[in-house]
Write a structure and sequence with these properties.
Largest sheet: 3 strands, antiparallel
Oligomer: single chain
GO molecular function: nucleic acid binding
InterPro entries: RNaseH_sf, Transposase-MT_Hybrid
Shape: flat
Distance between the termini: 98 Å
Strand content: 5-15%
Order of helices and strands: HHHHHHEEHEEEEEHH
Number of helices: 9
């Protein structure tokens, strides 16, 4: 019978992470391979035994109890869980969860490393084609529709729901997270004039109202009032001409 625990230990000492170990063992052992959760448990046990310093009796290697396994199960299913979330799921005090993670399981709470969003060659080629098509459209409409378009960097907002932190074993490599860049949903406030000089206030997403600060909303309100008055005056003058 294959000693999978020894294989996991060897691969972990080579610096491989849990997902990489699971995929490598799965490709070789097929259905005989341990589940991903079991592999994470073995890795956690190894990390704890390596980092425990048996200088005092109370710090000697201890076996995991039911609560320890429940905490590891939650982290396996939801790696970005906070102490508060784990405590709510398990019905345990937050201080107890934190103590188990740091003192017994030897986990640490880290910020994920940001890396650029990596594009494939096909994605790069498709984006160039789309950019060329968009440029032709903008050039063709430059003298009409886009004449009175007013926008800027400060009118862009975005909502972000990704996780920035994660609990990991003490000696593990810090996981990465892709820089969202243009992949994240954005909201834009736009002001423009139609041919009749009527002011349009376009909000592409209702959420944008919540994202605007009070000062910005006051500026927009005053700007709309001024532009509306100018439009009404222009209409009145046009009728008299």
């Amino acid at each position: 019978m294959i000693d999978q625990h020894s294989i996991i230990t060897f691969l972990q000492l080579e610096g491989k992470r849990g997902k990489e170990i699971y995929e490598e063992m799965k490709s070789v052992l097929k259905e005989k391979c341990l589940s991903q959760r079991q592999i994470y448990r073995v890795m956690a046990e190894l990390n704890r035994s390596q980092n425990t310093q048996p200088v005092k009796k109370e710090k000697k290697c201890q076996s995991y109890d039911i609560l320890d396994w429940k905490i590891l199960d939650v982290l396996t299913e939801f790696p970005h869980s906070s102490c508060r979330y784990i405590a709510n799921v398990l019905g345990e005090p937050k201080s107890t969860i934190y103590d188990r993670l740091t003192s017994k399981l030897m986990y640490k709470h880290v910020h994920l490393r940001w890396v650029p969003h990596i594009l494939t060659e096909n994605q790069k080629a498709n984006r160039v084609l789309l950019a060329k098509k968009l440029l032709k459209i903008l050039n063709a409409e430059q003298k009409t529709n886009f004449t009175f378009l007013i926008t800027g960097d400060e009118s862009w907002f975005y909502s972000k729901t990704d996780f920035n932190t994660q609990w990991i074993p003490e000696n593990s490599v810090i996981p990465t997270i892709q820089n969202p860049g243009f992949q994240i949903t954005k909201f834009m406030v736009t002001f423009c004039r139609q041919m009749k000089s009527l002011m349009l206030h376009i909000i592409l997403q209702p959420l944008c109202q919540k994202l605007l600060s009070l000062k910005t909303r006051i500026i927009i309100k005053n700007y709309l009032f001024i532009m509306t008055m100018q439009s009404l005056m222009w209409q009145k003058l046009s009728k008299n001409i």
